[in-house]
Amino acid sequence: MTFEQLEDLFYALQINANPSGFHGFLCGRLSCGAAEMQELVAASTKWLALAEEQTESAENALHDFYESSLSNLQDLSFLFQPLLPDDELPLNERLVAIGDWCSNYISGLGDGMGTEFEVSVDGKEALEDIAAIGQISVDLESEGEGERDYTELVEYIRIAVQLIFADLHPELDTDAEPTIH
């Protein structure tokens, strides 16, 4: 499901939520390990503040979204991408979406893991960086350099999330673990 498709689903269900923030929360939650579908639905229902009829209307689409998101995180060829708006939107709006994605990713991890979990030194650095990116401020001086920085930031987040996921899922055979530089 693309950013726009999730945005359309939220609009149709009259949900006032950011697709990037929701995807970040979901990825953080999924990174914590196996979760029953009902557990994910309950966490999502709470996060999205859904009424019962909205939950029923969205259940199939969200189920597919959960499955797709988990599959992307587990992909050993590291094809995971955070769900962000298209590049046609102004850079400041895309940066806000990155901040929402990152802060909600940390929230999802916290929701799923509680207080105790272990990651590598690189994983700890990645978590700290993602938390800091979640506090991003939108103060642009140069649009051209900003675009390049944006692309590098998205790539960093992509690799950082895969590193954290690999740390939390040592049972997956990841011969080509990503590293953070």
Notes on the structure:
The protein has one domain (about 5-170): YgfB uncharacterised protein family PF03695 (Four Helix Bundle (Hemerythrin (Met), subunit A), Up-down Bundle), CATH 1.20.120.740. It has 7 helices and no strands. The protein has helices at about 5-10, 20-30, 35-50, 50-75, 90-115, 120-135, 145-170. The longest helix is centred in the C-terminal third of the chain and has 26 residues, at about 145-170. The chain is globular, with a radius of gyration of 16 Å. The model is unreliable at about 175-180 (pLDDT under 50).
Can you tell me the CATH architecture?
Up-down Bundle
Rg on CA atoms, Å:
16 Å
CATH topology call:
Four Helix Bundle (Hemerythrin (Met), subunit A)
CATH homology group: YgfB uncharacterised protein family PF03695
CATH class: Mainly Alpha
Question: Helicity level, as a percent range?
Answer: 55-70%
Strand content: under 5%
Shape: globular
SSE series:
HHHHHHH
Mean pLDDT: 83
Low-confidence stretches: 176-181
Distance between the termini: 30 Å
Which SSEs are present, and which pair or pack?
Layout: H1 3-12, H2 19-31, H3 37-48, H4 52-74, H5 91-113, H6 121-133, H7 143-168
Helix pairs in contact: 2-3, 2-4, 2-5, 3-4, 5-6, 5-7, 6-7
